[in-house]
Every structure is written in C-alpha cells, then in structure tokens.
Amino acid sequence: xxxLYIPGFSAKNLAxxxxxxxxxxxxxxxxxxxxxxxxxxxxxxxxxxxxLELIRxxxxxxxxxxxxxxxxxxxxxxxxxxxxxxxILLGIPVLDLSEEDLKSYSVLKDFKNRxxxxxxxxxxxxxxxxxxxxxxxxxFDVRVVEADHHSYQYPELxxxxxxx
Length: 164
Hints:
Elements (H helix, E strand, L loop, with lengths): L1 E5 L6 H14 L3 E4 L14 H10 L6 E5 L1 H9 L7 E5 L8 H5 L11 E6 L7 H5 L8 E5 L9 H9 L1
Parallel strand pairs: 1-2, 1-3, 3-4, 4-5, 5-6
Helix pairs in contact: 1-6, 2-3
C-alpha cells in the first residue's frame, strides 16, 4: 500500500513520524512523508494553504493517509482532491483549532466508512470528550488509547490499522 504520512506541526513530530513510518515500511508499505519546511524555522506559524501546496507537490495518490495533530487539518482539506481507501487521524487537536477549522472536519461524514480516529482519552490538546463535542464519534471507527498526552508514537497500532 502507498501511505501518505502528514505529521503534526512541531519538529518533535519528525521522530514520531519516522518511528511509525519505519514500522509501516517494515510491514511492506511504501510511505511518502511530509517534511514541513517550518521545522527548520522555530518562528514559523501554521499556514493551511502552504501545507496543502506542500502535500500537492508530492504528487502522490495514496491508498491510505495517516495524519497527526494539525496534519489532520491538512489531510481533511486534501481529501476531496485525491483518491484513497482509508484515512487514519491521530489526535485531532480540537483545543488548538478555530471554529472555522473544526468545520473542515465535516467532510469526514462523506467518507465515514473509510475513517479511523485514534485519540488519547486525555490528550492535552483536546480530550476525547472535547473531540466528541465537535465530531459525532458514533459515525466512525474510533480507537481510544488510555493516555494523557499528545504523542501518537504507536507503530504497532498504526501498522495494524493500515493492514486492516
């Protein structure tokens, strides 16, 4: 399978992406990774249009999209431009998003049988309860991890979900 991996904003997401991607590659998948240009500039801020330009520039048609944190916002805005069989969203950062940004996630309902949400129950960027106030979780395959952080370095789980 061709996997497009869209990480979170912070440069610490590079190591997390590499661990998860390495597990996918060891399982026989081809992984195209988004490396944010702002990782080399600590003063940079998130810009959705720049993120989408970078994703488009990769010219990949993924079978599966894996996105983490703010990368999930880029991913949901990219969905209608590509073909894919599944999208796995790791830790949607609901507390960091504007109401307008949160509305972007409504596109997921058009793909609900292809959406897997992985969320740490007490994620400090938005708990599972916070997420449920913005997204009807009953419509999706939701995998809850009993954790209180925003790290999603779960290579076994991500590989399992890609393989399902």
